[in-house]
Amino acid sequence: MVFHAMSDSNAQRSRFVHRLFDAISGRYDLFNRISSLGLDQGWRRRTIASLRLTPGMRVLDLASGTGDLSRWAAMDLVPLGGVVACDFSFPMLRFSRRKFERVPAAHWHVQLTQAKAEALPFAEQVFDAATIGFALRNVSDLDTVFRELFRVMKPGGRLGLLEFGRASNPLLRAGQKLWLSTGVPLIGALTTGKLWPFTYLRRSILRFMVPEEVVRRLKEVGFTQVKVEPIQGGIVLVYQALRS
Per the domain annotation, does 27 fall within a domain? Predict the structure, then answer.
């Protein structure tokens, strides 16, 4: 296993995010469906499609949450290949297992692993593709995560990162901010009984680095053919890259 030292601030952030996702794991899917107006599964499917998966591949779904990306990937890999769903939250992984058991075609192709994104317990160059869904904002050290992804992916492997962005159109951007400030916290409180995780969600989206900075960091690690595909006017972004 590879370990990386974290600063006190990074460690504190990691503990906070860990506590947050443990707290909302049981209602996370319901919140996602309602707050995205039912669009989130289409975004995930689009991300998996960008990986161009074929049966026999081995895929890493990092920060897998409740396993939606893992499920879509596994369906593309049947009857061969497999997905490693990796997350630091045990409650999220436990919820994933129950979900996979309801989808027999995918169940046998998903392996659950609890680990931090900054210190992956995998050998070098073992995955044909990798993905992260809505978690770039939550890791304690994004550069370390990108280095770890590069380390465990095979040359020629495809990377697909799904993340929130900020709308390019001023009117749409104003609507996005209003939704994040009012609709999202309200839905979060009603579905989970907790408000504080969703005030964090708003801050993390609006304060996250611009797409050009994410692209730059991916290239610095060694990824090539890096591009960004905006969805819903830039509210959602799919980053695509090739492991050189």
Answer: yes
